[in-house]
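Structure (tokenized):
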């Protein structure tokens, strides 16, 4: 897909010019977690990829977390497009998104990616990470309902009002950390969220990325740029024959002189390498 550079510049200026404090803050954990194991193999993968950050993998059956850096994992960051998971849930629960056959119609305006310049079904809008599509969803949900549902879902520490309803997950002071991402996904996967089975089934379906012989990979990436710094997410879960593993990867490039496309690919590739190092997949 080809990038429209004039719109990239506009998007980056929009994202990086957010009105926020100049320091990151740690989002408070609802519960302390003792079942944590440091995995140095994850750190080797990260160091070999010219990035810094953390991979967290959670073994659902054993109730154990593995990571190279739990301190990083507890730092709150903008959710970026990982919020499309929650946004889809809330959209379906409120009726803003009618069903999995809902079509987001393109209004003919130029968009950041060519692939967004078409009518998109829900799964495609999610998979292509169509920002304008989900801005439309958030606007129709409205700030009051969005805040109500975010609290019901116990999703991070989000600050939502009428001024930022179209971009609170991309810029501003909303935060979620990797441990909270996994806690949210665990409740979603385990049918512990206060949502309908229909909503869960639809969102699970649109989250599927790869279906291989020995596993099914589901998840969502995210990317933000704040003060000229890239921050990338990949969150989700992988289902194998006898277990499910949840993951949350958060990365930043070591250098400001980076290729955005290459950095974006590393979110998934590093996560898959970590899963292979644990012999979860071959």
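Design, position by position:
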């Amino acid at each position: 897909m080809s990038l429209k550079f004039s719109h990239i510049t506009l998007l980056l200026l929009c994202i990086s010019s957010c009105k926020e404090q100049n320091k990151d803050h740690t989002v408070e954990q609802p519960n302390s977690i003792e079942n944590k194991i440091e995995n140095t193999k994850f750190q080797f993968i990260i160091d070999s990829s010219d990035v810094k950050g953390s991979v967290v993998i959670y073994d659902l059956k054993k109730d154990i977390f593995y990571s190279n850096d739990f301190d990083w994992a507890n730092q709150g960051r903008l959710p970026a497009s990982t919020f499309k998971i929650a946004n889809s849930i809330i959209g379906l629960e409120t009726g803003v998104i009618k069903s999995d056959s809902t079509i987001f119609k393109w209004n003919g305006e130029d968009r950041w990616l060519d692939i967004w310049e078409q009518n998109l079904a829900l799964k495609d809008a999610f998979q292509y990470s169509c920002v304008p599509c989900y801005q439309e969803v958030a606007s129709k949900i409205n700030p009051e309902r969005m805040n109500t549902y975010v609290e019901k879902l116990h999703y991070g520490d989000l600050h939502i009002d009428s001024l930022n309803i179209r971009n609170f997950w991309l810029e501003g002071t909303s935060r979620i950390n990797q441990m909270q991402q996994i806690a949210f996904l665990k409740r979603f996967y385990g049918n512990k969220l206060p949502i309908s089975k229909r909503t869960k089934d639809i969102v699970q379906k649109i989250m599927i990325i790869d279906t291989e012989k020995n596993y099914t990979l589901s998840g969502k990436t995210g990317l933000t740029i704040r003060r000229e710094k890239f921050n990338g997410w990949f969150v989700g879960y992988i289902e194998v024959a006898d277990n499910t593993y949840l993951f949350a990867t958060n990365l930043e490039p070591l250098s400001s002189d980076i290729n955005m496309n290459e950095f974006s690919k590393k979110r998934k590739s590093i996560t898959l390498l970590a899963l292979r190092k644990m012999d979860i997949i071959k």
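Reviewer-requested clarification: The CA atoms of residues 178 and 248 lie 5 Å apart. The mean pLDDT is 91.
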